[in-house]
Design brief:
36% strand, 87 residues, alpha+beta, six-stranded antiparallel β-sheet, globular, 6 strands, 15% helix, SH3 type barrels
Length: 87
């Protein structure tokens, strides 16, 4: 599974606006094919649950046992839903 093209949903925010230690689920991303494939290979795909470890440049998230550093430019294009069950 990979990240898909964006659709508008009211409860979605850019990953760049998520607070530290918040958990969220990836909804959609406005990324090119290569970016989507690279992130999916590291575990960040649509419906993946992750925790934001550190906001900034890079933004650090944890997907399962893997921590990823993602540029601010990319995090602004990944839409997420806060994980109500996880928080």
């Amino acid at each position: 599974m990979t990240l898909v093209s964006p659709t508008i949903e009211h409860d979605c925010i850019p990953l760049s606006q998520l607070g530290e230690r918040e958990k969220a689920v990836v909804h959609v991303a406005e990324l090119d094919h290569n970016e989507r494939e690279a992130l999916a290979a590291m575990g960040l795909h649509e419906e993946a649950t992750f925790e934001l470890c550190q906001q900034g440049q890079p933004c650090i998230i944890q997907v399962e046992a893997t921590r990823l550093g993602i540029s601010r430019e990319v995090t602004e294009r990944i839409m997420v839903r806060r994980c109500g069950v996880c928080n």
